[in-house]
Amino acid sequence: MIESLRVGAIVVLIAGGVFFTFVSATGVIRLPDIYTRAHTASQADTLGAGFALAAVALALGWQPSTVITVFLLFFIFVTNPTAAHAVARAAYESGIEPWREDEP
Q1: Which of 15, 20, 64, 71 could bridge across to 48 with cysteines, CB 3.0–4.6 Å?
Q2: Number of domains making up the chain
Q3: What residue intervals traverse the membrane (predicted)?
Q4: Predicted pLDDT of residue 104
Q5: 99 falls within a domain
Q6: Secondary structure of the chain as H, E, C letters
């Protein structure tokens, strides 16, 4: 009973990871400017990687490699938004204007 719940949770977490990673990839391809692309890459990709790593940690169980997986999860949650902010700030300081719908 507990094992089937664990496997079900792993499947749900993997599905969530795949969904958010797909949303992130689609957003990076379809969105019009660097600012919106950085936003979707930061938010959705962090969630996708977080769900996938949580599934890996749950699948590994109580092992030393699970601790490494949790540290990697924490590292991604800290660095992905920071990197997206750095990219957006560099674009702003370079003079790249945000996309506006009323412009040609």
Answers
A1: 20
A2: 1
A3: 7-29, 49-78
A4: 60
A5: no
A6: CHHHHHHHHHHHHHHHHHHHHHHHHHHHHHCCCHHHHHHHHHHHHHHHHHHHHHHHHHHHCCCHHHHHHHHHHHHHHHHHHHHHHHHHHHHHHCCCCCCCCCCC
